[in-house]
# Entry
Amino acid sequence: MLHYKSKALFAGVVLSISNLMAQGNKDYPIQPVTFNHVHVNDQFWAPRIEVNAEITIPYVLQKCRETGRVDNFLKAAGKKPPTNLTEYPFDDSDVFKVIEGVSYSLQTKANASLERSLDTLIQIIGEAQEPDGYLYTFRTMKPEKLHPWISQKRWEKDSDLSHELYNSGHLFEAAVAHYLSTGKKSLLNIAIKNADLIVKDFLYGKAPYFPGHQVIETGLSRLYRVTGKKDYLALAKYFLDIRGNGVVKGSEYSQSHKLVTDQHEGVGHAVRAAYMYTGMADVAALTGDQSYINAIGKIWSDVVYKKMYLTGGIGATGAGEAFGAAYHLPNMSAYAETCASIANVYWNNRMFLLHGDAKYIDVMERVLYNGMLSGIAQDGKKFFYPNPLASMGQHQRSAWFGCACCISNVTRFMPSVPGYVYAQDKNNVYVNLYMSNKADIQLPSGKLTLSQETAYPWKGDVKISVNPVKQMAFAMRVRIPGWARDEAVPGDLYRFASLQKANKIVIAVNGKPVDYQLEKGYAVFNRTWKKGDVISFELPMEIEKVIANEKVKDDQGRFALQRGPIVYCLEGPDHADQAVQNIVVEEQTNFTANYNPSLLNGILTLDGKGSATSRQVNSNQLLKKELPVKAIPYYAWNNRGPGEMVVWIPSQESLSRPKPAPTIASKSKISGSVSSQRMLSSLNDQFEPSSSEDKSALYVHWWPKKNTEEFIEYTFDQEYTISESKVYWYDDSPFGGCRIPANWEVLYKQGNDWVPVKALTPYETTKDKYNTIQFEPVKTTGVRMKIKLPVNHATGVHEWIVK
Ligand SMILES: [Zn+2]
# Structure
């Protein structure tokens, strides 16, 4: 159960922020109603926030101990020998992030034992801090050899990979959360000491290094808000303005290729980018700097109009965990890191706080219910790092990652969700999200409580009871989501297939429909409210088919399903043969919505009809078989094990991946010098690659090996006479690690021996086509391909056919 706590304490802090503002200090014109004032009691979010508090947080804390992340601090404090350190210098940040998560969680639910373990942890962190405030375990512990990302001198490699300032940024965020939640200054004092050192070295000492991984900008803004120390704000601005100034060589990867105010497109590492845009919004709000606001406005349009997945995920490519080119949104290889989704929520919420426009909340809601939520398994103990929009079964949730950024980020993000429901600006109350809750809000004209009742996102009815302590005048601004106004997203990246003009949504006050103006996506009700007033309306939960802009090649000939804020997908366990990649659904197909309380913790499925395609021997015609099709919410996929999944459903037969025809290869057992059976299963899936570098389906590869001899092997289901072998190489040059092989050879099984076939044609090594050899017919039960990798690269294979 979630309940109110430490309201008085938080009120004090809010007071200190409004004091800052009263002293002429600027901040966002719109202020969020913080999560500790919003008690969520719905069926959708409350259980998830509870799982985070009860399961994920203790689990991640334990993992931080098990994996040596806590020991890193003990080693830096000289209490353990500096050996066997963890993998990454940014591992400190996971400890800070989980402290932030626990702190937030403590505000909604007291937990004495968790609070005590924080005290212990904070003491260890304090002991790991150097006398002048420096806090970075990988250097302080003086290991025998410095990690290659760290230079002898402090900060010197921060613009590259040392992550010293990144760790500090997370320390500041954690410290402020811990202080606001418990009133204790233990971690705050550590953070202040660290921040003061950075102020001295950078702001006054003019160290020229920009933060390689942004986050310190938002951390410093928070620290400024609770301490009122102007240097922290100046330092946040310093860290933005030294990017791209030419003193330290920058790159698109870390958004340091240009001055931040000259950046107009979302480029490079998506998490770094979105944290930076968030930091720019904070500094703009706190200083009034319009040039930052202009820049992030342009970047926002670039990202939302051209570079965002339907799930709200950003960062299309795993190469550099980065934004791809405009409209380059591959589905199966989509990166869409969970951290990037969380950062996208932060950024869009800040854009709203600057501008009061509901379009930012439209994007935020899309991320929240889809690309962010997919990152966490329903058991709270397994996670996705990338969040792809299609799978052949190669994707699987993991209990931990060496780089655990997404996992610790989830712990701190989930408890803050209630803080995105309402916002206020003078005597305006913004209702941004729909979930049952009770909230208390202090407006200039007086106090009020709001209580929201809804079964969102499954049902569109919303009832909001407005209870001011006394009769008073203020405006309720009720968000009408873009999707309820036939607008799939701001911009034209996605649209709904059927554009029947949406009816104006009827909104009643005390049961009587009231006319209203729509301002920036909000229905505005400016009146004198009294205790017991009720706003009620119903958002139209139509099942929409979404079509992507024609420039998005990967989504052509396909549609996606969306209902309310939820994006759907087809998943293996709900379909014949556990297969969905072979399914085709006509765009006109009618789907019905059905609530299933026992499936995946209770979900609404969308049910319709489609057909499954399969290949046949000696014919190019596909066989089609009708079958029922069931779509589940995208966020819920991969909770029943790995398997096939697709968000963009083909409406054209040619785009499906038909079940393989019964050929010698498809009936064979596959083995090889590759450990993943799933990878090997791609050899005979009869998926035709469009080129050697095609990443849209599974392939076999030996990366990062090089110059070794490898093999793949078919064991036939019976004896056959064969005389031909066709192989399609995987080669992702020039950027990837795979090339066509140095050489290769086909052998067949004779008794217990492997004997080379007598080739009648040469062994080719050519990209982008099948390399076929004919050989003297042999009668055999198995065939093997010996592959010699090039000296400096690996090799891969898309498909292998034998006849
Ligand atoms: Zn991450």
